[in-house]
Amino acid sequence: MFFLFYYLLLLCTFAESHTYTDQPKPEKNGQELLLCRKCGTDIADSYYLFSKSSPGAQKVEKQNLFGRQNVTVQSLVNPFGVKFEIVTIEKTRCKIIGSPQGADSWFPGYTWRICACPHCGQHLGWVFESTEDGNIAEPQRQSFHGLILSNILGENFTDSLIMMPKMYKM
Questions:
Q1: pTM, 2 dp
Q2: β-pairing, 42-45 with 83-89?
Q3: For residue 44, what are the β-bridge partners?
Q4: Multiple choice CATH, 38-133+141-163, 3.40.50.300, 2.170.150.20, 3.40.50.1240, 1.20.210.10
Q5: pLDDT per residue over 1-14, tens digit each?
Q6: Which of 53, 112, 129, 160 is 20 to 30 A from 145 in CA distance terms?
């Protein structure tokens, strides 16, 4: 009986370790992973957060988020009056939807497209792609992402939600 149980356990472990993913998992560079708030899919590594200011930001503040200090959080409003708090990040695993849009871009010199969770399709933010040729006087990033703060969360936050209280630990 013990051997049957052991065999089933081994079989389940093997099946779990060989699941198919169509995109590679984000690298973890000693920082916290960012997750889709809806389904928990790994979206990015906080190592790639950076500050890219928008001239259209209503409010810009520094916060300690995702294991990093002084992360720039910007409050931006779209043409329909919907307010978003975003963080900018160099790379993500977002699924990019639609064709580049130049109208109403919060970042001059960049077009935007919707960035969605590759697993559940939740709108996570936007990818901004440069429209300008390589200007030597003022080099800019070819692309970056603006993630909506309310649609993502850090892995350490989720770990704290499912931790067993100390009084129940054996």
A1: 0.74
A2: unpaired
A3: 34
A4: 2.170.150.20
A5: 444 444 444 444 43
A6: 160
